[in-house]
Amino acid sequence: MAVEVETRGGVAIGFNKEKKSDSTTPPIENTALLTIRLRSLCPAWVLTSTSITSVTFISFFISVFPNGACIMAAYMGTRGTVKEATDFNPEADAQKLKAAMKGIGTDESAIIAIIAHRSIAQRQQIKMVYKRDFGKDLDEDLKSELSGQFEKVVTGLLKTAPVYDAYELRNAIKGAGTDEACLLEILASRSNAEIKALTAAYSQEYGKVLEEDICGDTSGMFKRVLVSLLTAGRDECTTVDEALAKKDAKEMYDAGEARWGTDEDKFLTILCIRNRSHLLRVFQEYLRIAGRDIEDSIKREMSGNLEEIFLAIVRCVKSKPAFFAERLHKSMKGLGTTDSILIRVMVSRCEIDMLDIKTEFLKMYGKTLHSFIKGDTSGHYGKILLELCGPEK
After folding, report:
1. Fewer CB under 10 Å: which end of the chain, C or N?
2. pLDDT in tens, the chain (393 residues)
């Protein structure tokens, strides 16, 4: 049974489960993910959390709302290099992708021309049409035709943002060893709504609880910081309590520089809970008290993964574009390329703030991100990354 959006005065207020199924209104698969995403997209909407089954939220949202793709694009941000394609025709795109994989060999250029130049919402529509017209999953067909790093970029772009984050986190903790850098990069940089969405997506995709999996693969204070971030409990208002900011700065100083050993609990409580505006004021006050930047103190007082995650939180508070510019530079500097970081950042940020990341990269390293990618990658892998990066100027 499908669902119908119930409106009142032109505003969606809930769902009517009694509408009979039809070909244009697919039902829903994940109520939690649906509720999180709709509330984050349209906070004014009041949703009824009814039992809704089948397909995914994104498919429902795009098919039910005429401007669903536009709303999704707005949610992703306005500072991306990948924009919504004008005169978008999902049927034509699906046909072109099928033709690109037909016969001997694959037309990778045709795949890049479509996948790298459509928004996430538009790619979901292409996937729906492809499955309808050919009875196969586009993701699986592309995975069987492509290989290596190029395949990882293409299939990554076909996922919605929460599902891609969940996929990366799953890969970071499954099997032997743990990719702590991936865990801290994602959890330190995502908003409360994004963390709730990726947590719901993880549960839906893998039938597991993300917090339990992370706790089983990490330990100590590093694990506690990750768990704190997973609660999505950060204050997201913009108010600054001047007295509390001074108190927080003093407590962090007393917990680190002013004593033998470090009371990491104080750092966790302040860095994982306070809002961004407040923390920026705390960092200013800390510099006045300690005579050094909070980052320098963290480097002096901590080590290993705990040092890295606290630094990531501080840097994201100061500037997410600068944080990701540093991640990209780290992935390409010296001999060899850390493709996992390069791919993850390019795929996850290309519709959000890649324009700002490029600006910060040039400011920080004196060279363009475009030139770094061009010099460090090759073939179709390099070509699609350059498309996501956008023009050099």
Report:
1. C
2. 333 333 333 333 334 433 333 333 333 334 444 444 444 443 333 333 333 333 344 445 544 444 444 444 444 567 899 999 999 999 999 999 999 999 888 999 999 999 999 999 999 999 999 999 999 999 999 999 999 999 999 999 999 999 999 999 999 999 778 999 999 999 999 999 999 999 999 999 999 999 999 999 999 999 999 999 999 999 999 999 999 999 999 999 998 876 666 789 999 999 999 999 999 999 999 999 999 999 999 999 999 999 999 999 999 999 999 999 999 999 998 777 899 999 999 999 999 999 999 999 999 999 999 999 999 999 999 999 999 999 986
- Alpha-carbon dihedral of residues 327, 333, 337, 338, nearest 10 degrees? -30
**Number of domains observed in the structure of the chain:** 5
Determine, yes or no, domain membership for 248: yes
Distance CA 346, CA 343 (A): 5
List Cβ neighbours of 66 (8 Å cut-off, separation of 6 or more): none
The three-state secondary structure class of 7 is strand
- pTM, rounded to two decimals: 0.82
Q: Are residues 217 and 257 in the same domain?
A: no
Domain extent at residue 246: 242-318
133 and 118 in a common domain: yes
DSSP 9: T
Alpha helices in 158-219 (DSSP H): 161-173, 180-189, 192-206, 210-217
- DSSP states of 74-112: HHH-SS-SS-PPTT--HHHHHHHHHHHTSSSS--HHHHH
Q: Which residues contact 17 (CB under 8 A, 6 or more apart)?
A: 1, 3, 50, 51, 52
Residues with Cβ within 8 Å of 21's Cβ and at least 6 positions away in sequence, in order, are 1, 2, 27
Residue entry with tokens 């089954």? 53
Query: What gap in Å lies between CA 26 and CA 17, rounded to an integer?
Result: 12
- Residues with Cβ within 8 Å of 276's Cβ and at least 6 positions away in sequence, in order, are 236, 238, 317
CA triple 304-309-310, angle to 5 deg? 100
In a domain? residue 128: yes
